[in-house]
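Example 9 (inverse folding). The structure is encoded as follows.
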């Protein structure tokens, strides 16, 4: 998922980087940061460059990304003393190309999140993968099925769940665990606050 807004604090504790601000917090295993981090400056929207650090675990599994929304200068200035070398670019996706199908009205992610939005229920969303954990809580301002994703849109948080990525939800002790269509855990949970 995506957290918008300023990061208020970053500190290291017990081998983890703790990142917090507003309605959001994240924990990142510091050992993971040393595996592979790529700087991408190819994302341009409405003439503005959005630099991004993609952090990878083993192989080509991207675990999380950090994107500078204030343009390249503040982001790249903070990295001026970091050693870098060029890597092969990813293929560029053309406008109108979609890697995901459109969201169906029966998409399990859409159905659960719409239920919480319609009842104005504050929720807690947690996403966890090896070495990385993010948490957000609040009410869903807008829920938009578009661009091949179920999208929660709030002032300080966006969540984009690819269409058909959630096969079903399994509820345990009031927490909804997202399962892939093959039944494997996705690492995403949603619960009322």
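The amino acid assigned to each position is listed next.
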């Amino acid at each position: 998922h995506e957290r918008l807004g300023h990061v208020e604090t970053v500190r290291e504790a017990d081998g983890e980087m703790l990142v917090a601000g507003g309605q959001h917090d994240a924990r990142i295993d510091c050992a993971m940061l040393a595996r592979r981090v790529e700087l991408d400056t190819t994302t341009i929207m409405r003439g503005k460059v959005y630099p991004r650090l993609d952090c990878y675990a083993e192989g080509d599994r991207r675990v999380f990304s950090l994107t500078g929304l204030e343009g390249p200068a503040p982001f790249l200035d903070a990295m001026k003393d970091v050693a870098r070398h060029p890597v092969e670019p990813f293929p560029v996706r053309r406008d109108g190309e979609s890697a995901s199908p459109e969201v169906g009205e029966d998409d399990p992610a859409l159905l659960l999140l719409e239920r919480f939005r319609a009842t104005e229920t504050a929720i807690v969303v947690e996403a966890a993968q090896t070495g990385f954990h993010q948490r957000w809580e609040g009410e869903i301002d807008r829920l938009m099925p578009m661009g091949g994703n179920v999208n929660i849109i709030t002032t300080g948080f966006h969540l984009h769940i690819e269409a058909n990525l959630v096969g079903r939800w399994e509820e345990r002790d009031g927490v909804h665990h997202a399962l892939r269509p093959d039944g494997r855990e996705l690492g995403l949970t949603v619960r009322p606050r």
